[in-house]
Amino acid sequence: MVITTRKKRVDELARADMETSLVAGAWRRLRRIPVFFVGVTIMAGFVLVALSAPWLAPHDPTAALLLDQVSKARNTIPAPQPGYPLGGDDQGRDLLSRLLIGSRQTLLVGVLATLIGFAGGLVLGTVAGALASWVDTVIMRVVDAMLSIPSLLLAVSIAALFAHPSQLTVILAVAVVQIPIFARLLRGSMLAQRVSDHVLAAQALGVRPSAVVFRHMLPNALSPVIVLATIVLATSIIDAAALSFLGLGNPDDTVPEWGQMLARAQDVFDTHPELAFWPASCIIVVALGFTLCGESLRDALDPKNRR
Questions:
Q1: Is residue 79 part of a domain?
Q2: Residue 239: inside a domain, yes or no?
């Protein structure tokens, strides 16, 4: 009994040391990737601005404070001036304030869509990877069918099914598109874990199948999926902006969102391209930050790069 207890303790310490060494090794590799710090800086700045936007915005984003400077006859909008660094839009509203408040909506849509897609993919990938039967075949064929359709086209088709577009419909449309991506990767990781030594040992010792799946297979299969979530978040932001740009998002422009702002700017793009430049730049920079961070994490955690 004492020998068995001591052996378990040794195994636990060995496992903890291995996990610690893996994390330390990943961090050493990340420190040698400059773009990782660029991505983290962009991500942290975006989240900080989004969370503190109500206090950072100098004016009410819905108030037409510069309406007297708007002339539709002469096609003029308020230019940058003291108190309004970026000027105003075609409704006389402060552009900087709308960009800051719009970051909150963009972060909300991106995070919620990614979380819902992750949850759906987690369920499908776990079931498919744990059950090597007709259930796996059916799930994977459905996933393959969804992956065969371009993501933006699928998102547009789903969003168009709703009679009244809103922010919720955008979140659901983008989330459904992400589910097969997570499901496919998690299922592959689960299959790799199924033939690993610790899973085979647990099965040989008579551990219940549910315990094998949720205690031995799933926790070890989640690492690549979590890394993928960082990259998918960037895709979610782009897809959500595209749906809003196409008029499938929230039609209420009193709640600013970058894709919606980009769509409204098309009416005056020939004379005032800056109205499209600022929201488009925000979308590009934020998506780039999440992509750089995700790609760096994937390289750092890749077993081929371990030394």
A1: no
A2: yes
Q: Is the residue at 273 inside a domain?
A: yes
What burial letters (b/e) apply to 180-209, b meaning 16+ CB within 10 Å?
bbbbbbbbbbbbebbeeeebeebeeeeeee
Into how many domains does the chain fold?
A: 1
The total number of residues written for the chain in this structure: 307
| CA nearest to 114, candidates 300, 280, 262, 294 | 294
- Residue 115 is which amino acid? L
Residue 247, φ and ψ in degrees, nearest 5: 85, 15
Give the model confidence (pLDDT) of 234-267 as tens digits: 899 999 888 988 888 888 888 888 988 888 888 8
Q: Is the pTM of this model over 0.85?
A: no
State which amino acid sits at residue 97: S
Q: Are 94 and 61 in contact (CB under 8 A)?
A: yes
Dist CA 221 CA 219 (whole Å):
6
Measure the CA–CA gap between 105 and 161, rounded to whole angstroms.
22
